[in-house]
């Protein structure tokens, strides 16, 4: 694990908020010479602390309503098929553009973050496209009413 | 909702992968004049389709193991207190650096994405810092074994 000092952390925090800040703007805000800032960013990228630069989509591009869906697969008669069921579920969900995240937990559970234009369309999508998938035992839907932290994951995960 | 055409979408997809691409590199990859690319990006930012530029942290900076935790608050004797319980839970969780996301679902449920250096430390954190919170009825822990989509949300949400 790379050790970061206060200056590294300050640079990372500023770039997280706005990665278009120039070396000279960072230098001014952090009260350090431009050469120092330049060298630190170079090192942070070389060491893989900063992996890459990306963009975040704005509010009007992202789903207005999201839900976390916990899906439990049915245990098949031939138990070896469970892994296939789950892998198939994950692939199917991952292909849906409304589905922002798909993760596997344990042997039989798949968790997804799903988005929709509004509550009604989100429900409709879940009812018609997720709950109807074969080999499901249970589907628990947790509509998100408010984020306390990490709200921007929706902006980050939305595709165009 | 802003209508995007194929060129807008292509620009957004390339910038999502690498927001440091220059106008001239985008122009070359998309086989369009630099002036067109420049104008489109300007418009996408003006219209709020692109909200901002940010950085993603690399693998070595992020928690190796994550879990989704579904927390149900106890219904208090005085029912009006439930909202306070839940808000307090959300605030407490949001302050923990290991907690990457916190969201409220319905009246009594809080969902969090939690990270740890490894499985053991993650379990320890959940047992010692989440399960011990007062006013909880149930805590369901779903350790994430594999992402099918949206894996980078961990890189995006990790703080330094």
Automatic annotation (TrEMBL), chains A, B:
UniProt cross-references to SMART domains, sorted A to Z: HTH_ASNC
SUPFAM superfamilies the record matches: Winged helix' DNA-binding domain (SSF46785)
Residue ranges of every copy of the HTH asnC-type domain listed in the record: 4-69
Organism encoding this protein: Thermococcus gorgonarius
DNA repair in keyword set: no
Gene Ontology molecular function: any one: sequence-specific DNA binding
Keyword Plastid: no
A Pfam family hit: AsnC_trans_reg_3
InterPro entries hit by this protein: ArsR-like_HTH (IPR011991), AsnC-type_HTH_dom (IPR000485), HTH-Siroheme_Decarb (IPR050684), PF0864-like_C (IPR054609), Tscrpt_reg_AsnC-like (IPR019888), WH-like_DNA-bd_sf (IPR036388), WH_DNA-bd_sf (IPR036390)
Record-given protein name: Transcriptional regulator
Keywords, comma-separated and alphabetical: DNA-binding, Transcription, Transcription regulation
């Amino acid at each position: 694990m790379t050790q970061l000092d206060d200056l590294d952390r300050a640079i990372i925090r500023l770039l997280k908020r706005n990665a278009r800040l120039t070396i000279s703007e960072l230098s001014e805000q952090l009260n350090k010479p431009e050469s120092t800032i330049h060298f630190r960013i170079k090192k942070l990228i070389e060491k893989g602390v900063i992996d890459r630069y990306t963009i975040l989509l704005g509010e009007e591009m992202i789903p207005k309503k999201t839900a976390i869906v916990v899906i439990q697969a049915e245990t098949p008669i031939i138990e070896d098929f469970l892994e296939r069921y789950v892998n198939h579920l994950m692939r199917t969900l991952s292909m849906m553009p409304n589905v922002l995240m798909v993760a596997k937990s344990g042997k039989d559970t798949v968790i997804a973050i799903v988005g929709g234009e509004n509550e009604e369309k989100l429900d409709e999508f879940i009812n018609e496209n997720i709950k109807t998938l074969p080999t499901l035992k249970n589907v628990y839907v947790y509509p998100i009413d408010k984020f306390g932290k990490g709200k921007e994951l929706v902006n980050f995960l939305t595709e165009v």
